[in-house]
Amino acid sequence: MSAMFEKVTIIGMGLIGSSLARVIKQNGLAGKLTAADASEEVCAKVKELGLADVVTHDIAKSVIGSNLVILAIPISGIKAVAEAIGPMMAPNAVLTDVSSVKGAIFEAVTPFLPDSVDFVPAHPIAGTEHSGPEAGLVDLFGGRWCILTPTSDTPIKSVEKVTAFWEACGAMIEIMDAQHHDLVLGITSHLPHLIAYTIVGTADDLEDDIKSEVIKFSASGFRGFTRIAASDPVMWRDVFMFNKDAVLEILQRFNEDLTAMQKAIRRGDAKYLEECFTRTRAIRREVMEMGAEGYPNPALMNQGTDSEKP
Amino acid sequence: MSAMFEKVTIIGMGLIGSSLARVIKQNGLAGKLTAADASEEVCAKVKELGLADVVTHDIAKSVIGSNLVILAIPISGIKAVAEAIGPMMAPNAVLTDVSSVKGAIFEAVTPFLPDSVDFVPAHPIAGTEHSGPEAGLVDLFGGRWCILTPTSDTPIKSVEKVTAFWEACGAMIEIMDAQHHDLVLGITSHLPHLIAYTIVGTADDLEDDIKSEVIKFSASGFRGFTRIAASDPVMWRDVFMFNKDAVLEILQRFNEDLTAMQKAIRRGDAKYLEECFTRTRAIRREVMEMGAEGYPNPALMNQGTDSEKP
Question: Does the pTM of the predicted model rise above 0.90?
């Protein structure tokens, strides 16, 4: 049986890139799999783990002859990589990525691509707080959404190729506009991460004796925030640099709501607080109902467990 | 073998009260267990589940003859209950509670107690986002911290009784000053809950089409916040009413830090963001090291799993 793609190149062998390599190998999705990473250290690790047929730190050359090229690097590096690989890409190849921001990506990549190469931006909503090639999991994408954000000019055949690829990795596909993606993910992902980083940072600034007790009694809500706040710093720095407008817009709404809460606490407005705390239960119910469509991911059961409370 | 206490009364049969009833029964800690709750509906459920030897909605009378009385009701109800049970309590009985705020509790309770009755405030750091007598778990307190906040006037023998009781429920004991407790828990628990309630409320205010997608793609960080924001509204309303000063103090620090983040995003200050996102990893490591002392609680493994990411 022939593979889905004759040759696939993954650029960037962190958590997502190395998880893709694992599932591509397991499901025989590539005749030949090339893994490229600018770091010699990462390349050595990828070789040691046997994650790809070819491992190289020469990113430009890594795409030669590939039918599918996947960018799995921090957003700030994408423009330079697109410039380097653009001239080397095979005619009719498809380029895709895994970035958490979609609007800025398209503008960064397309100027450097030959006419016959299509770019189909993708964002698999899956991951852990761990980083690096050792952290990858073969079933990271199983039952997870992968959002594609092609433009109206993107040829359907290329969207179909990327769809088929992600489905073969176990993901469920949703197609939406890049700006819409950036707003929705700004709420579900970027703002929560910003808040978690902030609250853990606030705790880090406390006097040492209180800080040690905060860590000791972290089970009561804080623990979950520390997990989110342990996510890759460079990746998240880039998210906020490249999804600035949507994040600032949502942050402003959040700030208004937090100010109202603060005022209610200061005034002792029990009725307001109870009403706010009651209506949020409905969203939890809806989230749990959606959960039946693929959560929790068994691969993450042992990593993500944080029971919290008062 | 004789039980640890001849007679125990639990007032309030929600998540915590009913979990206590379960572990008291399982470990034979009471010769006779009385469960009291103001709600007829809750009493009926407790009877149906067979959680206690006596079930009553007459709270005042429920404490007659008991050696240990445990208040497991929302904080705002504690003063009235203390006033009702004070005159009925047996000489040399010990009173304790499970509230998430400790400073305000002591002042609310002690004026109503006879001289021979000691109050030893307690706060088990354990729970789930579920409420009611059906939600209780026999091993909810296993491997969890329980913080006691006696004053310097509290007789040691009563502190020892409450310590022995919680240890027999599987908990680990820590003793600290009530004001210190309220500050530490303000950071680890109250602020995270306030933030989670706020962010889920912000999402709830969105236009319907965006809201449905926020729910659909909630895996990316937001999902964990919805779990926290599904916690009991009355209990949490009371936490913010009774730990107002500590919460407002911590909220102010958090707001300053969030404003600095916002400014860095607006200015595109990549260096600041990366530094903030890097230093928070150290706290996660310390939290995970603490975790070896008793987390995760197997009883909660199936409830608390939320894998998050970009």
Answer: no
